């Protein structure tokens, strides 16, 4: 009996020591995880000598795997269907630049076919990329205004922006303006046009009056139960 | 004639068997608890070069995940944002804060910020972010409540069985596509009702969006 108790006690002590040293699952640790099936036993399996995006890579002078494309690189991707036919991303076309081909004059009208899907896409992208500063309503009351560190955010319902050609808005979104950064690198061109289409709908929602409703909608509005 | 073996040796086989059973049980339990990514991966919270808080940006300020991880719905990789994305706001907000010195330097000189990768799967696993995000699998399923973490830590094991749990029953995890980046979203505040709605709508989404319950090796390993 004495032996049994001492064996159990020793066992409990060892168990306690293991749990004490290793901790319970889910414990916070800043140490890199120990790879149990590591490269030591199966070299080149878990961590293969291949390039992965945004990783350190000594081969290139700047030490990262993701390199910028050399100047003059032509983007290979399927074309986008616009009102004036399929457009590719390397073309000097209003879809890519917001300007009339071969000039610096901004185009007046969105080159994308206007559909419900485009507006929905525009709303989603607007809420992601524009709303943090310009606000979901586009009135310039975004979260950056609320925290008070970004005082000069454009109200997108300004007459200046309402009368601005679509191409000029596209140009501003793409390259930034003043303190606003460029969104061309993170929002693809068709999404930028979708955002502009949605912005026009937002502006219209603010400009509209009850006179814009058709007869049946007006009747509904004036209906008193 | 005295006995060759003393009397206590009669108990020896029993005692040995008992000790072996206890020791074996302890080792099995130890392996089951400790030799699994649930132990050695979950909770990994490295010190990052910039004390960026997801709790502030995604939680309090309500930025959408895709503002920074802008390729997550277009590409297999959820990109770390470039410093220019940070500077969209931080050229004005906290613009001289010493904590952001590395970010400002990165934006001006194109030097990489040495972020420490937390969530990583073996190189023979080909996980595609866009295909999951665009079919209603939320960020939270694999990354946990990142919007509540000041410093990001790994919340789920990302082991093969973790992947298979969902691949065998996608209907239990799928949600409306527009709620994918809303990490705290639930069908209903009442858990029982939420589970019921998950069951009904999950099955519907899986059918309508032609979500496949892929379990072949080549789904992930190529």
What does this 3D model show about the protein?
The complex is a heterodimer of chains A (about 220) and B (about 220). Chain A has a domain at about 105-205: Cytochrome Bc1 Complex, Chain D, domain 2 (Orthogonal Bundle), CATH 1.10.760.10. Helix content of chain A is about 40%, strand content about 5%. Chain A has helices at about 1-20, 95, 115-135, 145, 160, 165-175, 190-205, 215-220, and strands at about 80, 85. In chain A, β1 and β2 (about 85) form a beta hairpin. In chain A, α6 packs across α7 (about 190-205). Chain B is mainly α and about 220 residues long. Chain B has 10 helices and no strands. In chain B, α5 packs across α6. Chain B starts with 11 loop residues before the first helix and ends in a 14-residue tail after the last helix. The interface between A and B is large, with 54 and 54 residues.
Short description:
The complex is a heterodimer of chains A (225) and B (222). Chain A is mainly alpha-helical and 225 residues long.
The total strand number of chain B stands at 0
The biggest beta sheet of chain A is recorded as: 2 strands, antiparallel
* Regions with little confidence, pLDDT below 50 for 5+ residues of chain B: none
Question: How much beta of chain B, percentage-wise?
Answer: under 5%
Report how far apart the termini of chain B are. 75 Å
**Approximately how much helix is present in the residues of chain A?**
25-40%
Order of helical and strand elements of chain A: HEEHHHHHHH
The quaternary structure here is heterodimer
Instruction: Please identify the structural class of chain B as seen in this structure.
Output: mainly alpha
Helix content of chain B: 40-55%
Task: Draw up the topology in text.
The complex is a heterodimer of chains A (225) and B (222).
Chain A: H1 2-22, E1 80-82, E2 85-87, H2 94-97, H3 116-134, H4 143-146, H5 159-162, H6 166-175, H7 189-207, H8 215-222
Antiparallel strand pairs in A: 1-2
Helix pairs in contact in A: 3-7, 6-7
Chain B: H1 12-34, H2 37-40, H3 54-60, H4 65-68, H5 83-90, H6 101-109, H7 129-133, H8 140-143, H9 160-168, H10 191-208
Helix pairs in contact in B: 5-6
